[in-house]
Design brief:
Strand order of the largest sheet: 2-3-4-1-5
Structural class: mainly alpha
Number of helices: 47
Largest sheet: 5 strands, parallel
Radius of gyration: 32 Å
Helix content: 55-70%
Oligomer: single chain
Number of strands: 7
Length: 962
């Protein structure tokens, strides 16, 4: 499209778009969602943007109501001009996009769906090149789910690529969630603009007044209703008789009805087709008696327009398409779908053919059902899980055999679960279960068919359980998993073990009693020794702390003996075969719960590297949570901040509410550590929000620990103790945060003069530390004994604790103990001895940016007679971590922390990877960004670090221990 598109009354909206286009020419990216009712002017604004694009490159697409079952169809049509840049994408992204588009060369089968979104981001960046790019999508509410999710993922991660994305979506039709993206809601035109638009049609004054009142400033109504009135279509303008959209459709009905019959037939074929591909439309129309010459009347009337390459056509407005399809008799629509199915015989059109066969069916249809099942299978291979669910579900409805119907409903439920459509997955699972129950009842009545096999019924229970779990209904999820496993308990099958392992996860959120009972069932399962899940089960049954406090049932297998090392368990699994990533993640969490922090961190790091290599953005937040926990426990706060910040963004972009809750709570802890009360309370409140009735929020344990640490750091010991005691009670007392915060609870209890309130939690902690067999855990027990003991006992305990602490791997715990011991020595008037310990503690607290603790150490030093050095310059990010490499395993801080502290978490992450020698494109692939965004962050980071090149950066990174 060229030339200026005339707009009436949309000056401010046009100005906003002009500003975005100007930003794209400067290399800036932006996304804007235009929302409003049909006819309000969204398409006109897109046309205006296209006309004003100038030298910007352009891609434009439209969602089509009838194509929502074809995965990535909308995205493929949108990106068709940019596909020449595919070769520039990293191999994994290129393979995922080729597979998604069915281009034949793709190798991305089964990839994380978000990898396609990352590929879209990279492709838009490449196509934008130096000129910039305008991406326009009309009727976005009708995009197929796979296209929508990939496009939104890319939109949320646009930063500095010179890409402007304008997405137009209707109100109240379909669903186009755009959380976090800028929106512009279009209202009706102002009265003067509406009157000016209506001036194009001379009308009697009374009728003009009525039309202005009825149109309510809707531009399409102002343009089309006068045409309907002139054509004597009174139904289109009966006062108050119909909603405005219906009146507009009725107006279009009249325009279509005036076309020759063969033209109406051809329009109906075009309306039923989802691509606008002229060749297929004409081939199908020919069998119904219409040909290419019948396009002319519709084109002259402005009902359809040809595409840019003359091989496609589209309706001037989506309401025209709807009017054409809805006004046609049912028999005509069925005939058109049959004709389209017959016209789409080529293998590459198999999916479209299947859906047209289904649309033409009037009852059970074995051929259409089988074709749809093949379509669903292909969709799953292309990560089009929503489309797969729709195809399986429709195939089930077309199945005459109850067994086939139940099987396809189960497959539909599994596919829906993979999309994150929890409501639909649960509904489909329940429907399949009812189908199976009906078959079982029939069998009991003497029919030939029995109910589904136990394995199928267990799969259905598992699908419903996972849907319940991700909605936050942990009790229902746990119950379904146990019921499903009970169907297979006697078989000792891997499926039963997998369900009980998942039930271990759900019971974790319910309480210690439920966890103990689940572990007991897992330990009793007769798994074959050669099964790779057998070592997993043996590791998990040690999850609870040994001793009577682990619960009345814990003694028969759930925790009496020592847990094996995680490394030995993983090696045993590898010798037997493979287990799912989900099982490995549960092992990772269990290892942290048992104090095997280093092994758990190594496993999480390995899994994260694999997900990054495969582009698994959707699966990465779970892994990063365990990495962030390990970094917090090791006192590597800057690493933890970087990890949690990245993971929170990914969780938000992929709609994973559980991990949003968890990571905001981890950020609350880091804010508490540095004394940022406002940020701590804000993050903790977010972490506690959204819990289902009667169930603890996923982020609650970290939130309570954070708030307690904040109060303790600010000297409000009674408030701190109340927070820690909340953690020490059911249903959270077995959680990792409850265990790790026990030394804080003990310190709070001593400070308020109520050491007896720490007795029971400390006894549990001592049993846990004994079973964990970690030197740092024993050191924490000794610190607690030092707080509670007599003078002689305290000195012995503190000194022994310092001997066990490793200053390199866990500097924070060393500093906390040194501070307490230094305070004890100062009170004992041994000031010279106290100064050395307090100076060491202060150096760590300053380096980690823990202002409250640093001030406390500084105050104690002053009380010993040391000169007041004043507070060290603040560190908004939590200080330098003191590791070597991007995820260093130990190492000393080499000074210069202030330079690294000036970086944002994302800048720090990018700088670390750049210092390793990774290119901008490699970094972009790892962090799910565009390479231009990576370059932008490096451009901002170099001046902060005082470097000008990657070579200098590498040397500086080594000096700073990055």
């Amino acid at each position: 499209m060229s030339g200026r598109v005339e707009l009436c009354g949309r000056e401010s909206e046009a100005g906003a778009i002009a500003a975005l286009l100007a930003g794209a020419r400067r290399g800036e990216s932006a996304v804007l969602v235009l929302r409003g009712e049909p006819g309000i002017g969204k398409t006109a604004l897109l046309d205006h943007a296209e006309a004003m694009a100038g030298g910007l490159r352009l891609v434009r697409g439209t969602g089509v109501e009838f194509e929502a079952e074809l995965p990535f169809s909308g995205l493929q049509l949108l990106l068709r001009p940019a596909l020449g840049c595919l070769a520039a994408l990293p191999a994994a992204q290129r393979g995922a996009l080729e597979t998604a588009f069915g281009l034949g060369a793709g190798t991305g089968a089964g990839a994380d769906p978000m990898l396609v979104g990352l590929a879209v981001l990279s492709l838009l960046t490449e196509y934008a090149d130096r000129e910039g790019l305008l991406c326009l999508v009309d009727d976005a509410q009708w995009l197929d789910r796979a296209s929508r999710d990939a496009l939104l993922f890319a939109a949320r991660r646009l930063r500095a690529e010179g890409v402007v994305m304008l997405l137009a979506a209707r109100d109240g039709e379909g669903s186009f969630p755009a959380l976090g993206l800028a929106e512009l809601r279009l209202e009706g035109l102002r009265p003067e603009a509406a009157a000016a638009l209506l001036d194009r049609h001379p009308l009697p004054p009374a009728l003009r007044f009525r039309l202005l009142a009825e149109a309510r400033g809707n531009p399409l109504a102002l343009l089309e209703l006068p045409v309907a009135l002139g054509a004597e279509q009174p139904g289109a303008f009966a006062p108050g008789a119909l909603p405005l959209t219906s009146r507009l459709q009725l107006a279009f009905h009249g325009q279509v009805g005036r076309m020759p019959e063969t033209t109406q037939t051809l329009l109906l074929v075009a309306a039923a087709d989802e691509t606008g591909e002229l060749t297929a439309i004409l081939r199908a129309a020919e069998t119904l008696g219409a040909g290419v010459a019948d396009l002319l009347p519709a084109e002259r009337a402005g009902l359809i327009v040809r595409g840019g390459a003359e091989d496609t056509l589209r309706f001037r407005h989506p309401l025209i398409r709807a009017a054409v399809y809805q006004r046609a008799p049912l028999g005509h629509r069925l005939a058109v779908h049959r004709a389209l199915a017959a016209a789409l015989q080529a293998p590459e059109h198999a999916d479209r053919r299947a859906w047209h066969l289904a649309a033409a069916a009037t009852g059970p249809d074995r051929l259409a059902a089988a074709a749809l099942e093949h379509t669903a299978s292909r969709a799953r291979e292309r990560s089009g899980y929503q489309a797969a669910a729709a195809a399986y579900e429709r195939a089930a409805r077309l199945s005459a055999d109850p067994a086939e119907r139940a099987r396809r409903e189960a497959l539909a439920a599994e596919a829906a679960l993979e999309t994150g459509d929890l409501e639909r997955a649960g509904d489909l699972g329940r429907r399949a279960a009812r189908t199976d129950a009906a078959r079982t009842d029939t069998a009991h009545a003497g029919a030939a068919h029995a109910g589904a096999a136990p394995g199928v019924r267990a799969r259905l229970a598992q699908v419903q359980a996972l849907a319940d779990f991700w909605k936050g209904d942990y009790p229902a999820a746990h119950r379904r998993l146990l019921e499903g496993a009970a169907l297979l308990d006697d078989t000792g099958s891997a499926q039963a073990a997998e369900m009980l392992i998942q039930a271990t996860h759900t019971s974790w959120y319910l309480g210690e009693r439920q966890l103990a009972a689940t572990l007991e069932r897992l330990s009793a399962l007769p798994l074959a020794e050669a099964d790779p899940l057998a070592p997993v089960a043996r590791f998990l049954v040690h999850l609870l702390t040994p001793g009577p406090e682990a619960g009345p049932d814990a003694g028969q297998g759930a925790g009496r003996s020592q847990p094996p090392p995680l490394g030995e368990t993983l090696e045993a699994v590898r010798r037997r075969g493979q287990v799912s990533d989900q099982t490995l993640l549960i092992l990772c969490g269990a290892a942290l719960a048992r104090g095997q922090d280093a092994d758990a961190y190594q496993l999480a790091t390995t899994l994260a590297a694999g997900h990054r290599a495969r582009g698994g953005a959707g699966r990465l937040p779970t892994v990063l949570f365990f990495m962030a926990e390990g970094e917090v426990f090791a006192g590597r706060h800057l690493d933890a901040l970087t990890t949690a910040t990245e993971a929170l963004g990914l969780a938000q972009d992929t709609g994973q509410r559980q991990w949003v809750s968890q990571f905001t709570s981890v950020l609350a802890y880091l804010a508490a550590a540095r004394g940022d009360e406002q940020a701590c309370r804000r993050h903790a409140e977010a972490g506690l929000a959204g819990a289902a009735a009667g169930v603890t929020s996923p982020g609650a344990p970290w939130a309570y620990w954070s708030l307690g640490l904040l109060e303790l750091g600010q000297g409000r010991a009674e408030a701190a103790l109340a927070r820690f005691e909340r953690l020490a009670r059911e249903p959270m007392r077995h959680h990792i945060c409850a265990t790790r915060s026990t030394p804080d609870l003990v310190e709070s209890a001593v400070r308020v003069g109520a050491p007896e309130r720490a007795a029971e939690p400390l006894a549990r902690f001592e049993r846990w530390a004994a079973s964990a067999r970690q030197p740092w855990a024993r050191a924490l027990v000794l610190r607690c004994r030092g707080l509670l003991g007599t003078d002689e006992q305290a000195e012995q305990a503190y000194a022994a604790a310092l001997e066990l602490h490793d200053q390199d791997s866990r500097p924070l715990e060393y500093a906390r103990t040194a501070l307490l011991y230094g305070e004890w020595l100062r009170r004992a008037r041994r000031k010279a001895e106290a100064r050395g310990l307090l100076n060491g503690a202060l150096e760590v607290f300053d380096r980690l940016g823990m202002a409250p603790w640093a001030e406390r150490a500084r105050g104690e030093l002053t009380a010993t007679g040391a000169p007041d050095r004043g507070p060290r310059a603040g560190n908004s990010h939590g200080g330098q971590s003191g590791q070597g490499g991007p995820r260093g395993q130990g190492g000393q801080d080499r000074g210069g922390a202030g330079a690294a502290a000036a970086l944002t978490p994302q800048e720090l992450q990018i700088v670390r990877l750049a210092a390793q020698g990774l290119s901008n494109r490699d970094i972009a692939a790892q962090l799910f960004l565009s390479h231009r965004t990576v370059g932008y962050h490096l451009y901002k980071a170099y001046p902060k670090l005082g470097v000008a090149s990657r070579g200098e950066l590498k040397d500086l990174a080594a000096d700073l221990g990055l």
